[in-house]
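Researcher: Please predict.
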Amino acid sequence: MQNRKSSKSFREQFICQRAHEMVLEVYRITKDFPKGEQYGLTAQIRRAATSAATTMVEGFEKKKATEKIRIMNASQHALSETEQCLILADGLDYGKMNMLMSMTDEVRWMLGAYMNAIKRGR
């Protein structure tokens, strides 16, 4: 693998690592959801969480600041969708979603800080 002088690989970005951990935890927890949710809420939470992480990776690969911010904003939207699904799962008593919501909040906060740094030109 080639070393990039201008930026780290997405795999070296702490925010991408945390997003990956969040997705893994989503999969672990949703495997215990009711079987009737397999194609409903289970699939939706997994899709949203995975989308947040993979979209973020796409954003890290962009060179132009405006493109990075646009794509990272899409990742934030997927994080919000994930959170709403977690709130719904919590309300349906599919388990306590507090840890996953905290992970989602952490990734969202880190992503916002990263976007602000891009806007400031760092």
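Model: The helical segments are 14-30, 41-61, 65-91, 98-119.
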